[in-house]
TrEMBL record:
Annotated protein name in UniProt: Transcriptional regulator, BadM/Rrf2 family
N-terminal signal peptide: none
Gene Ontology terms: cellular component: cytosol
Biological source species: Allomuricauda ruestringensis (strain DSM 13258 / CIP 107369 / LMG 19739 / B1)
Alphabetical list of InterPro entries matching this protein: Tscrpt_reg_Rrf2, WH-like_DNA-bd_sf, WH_DNA-bd_sf
Source taxon at top rank: Bacteria
GO molecular function, one term: DNA-binding transcription factor activity
Gene3D superfamilies, A to Z: Winged helix-like DNA-binding domain superfamily/Winged helix DNA-binding domain
Amino acid sequence: MFSKACEYGIRAVAYIALQSLDGRRVSVNEIAEEIDSPIAFTAKILQQLSRNKVIQSVKGPTGGFELDRTEMDTVKLSSIVHAIDGDGTYVGCGLGLKECNANQPCPLHDKFVDIRTDLKNMLENTSLYELAMGLEVGLTYLKR
């Protein structure tokens, strides 16, 4: 359902959130290594997330990426998805057909609408803090 960039973005933000809880900024190299992603690709994703104010980028010798603890409760996973994939996750045909809609549905249209609604609810109701806490207690892993 998500692009590879979005998957890496979610994993990167989860790692940044966890490190931010310990008061640490993290470099693009550290993030890329931790989430098993190419450095240049990770840098591009982090730039998109920073531009969309999902994460903060601090320049300079002590710079890196971080999240403000107070924002972790209010920023939701949907912000990451929107910053990287836009609204594509919530629209379009599950089979990739161009002309699928309520008037001309594909065989999976009605079932896929329900799945997308559930996915959207989950993304809009899961905070970055919850994601970080899942990592901290070992419920989530960043590498495949």
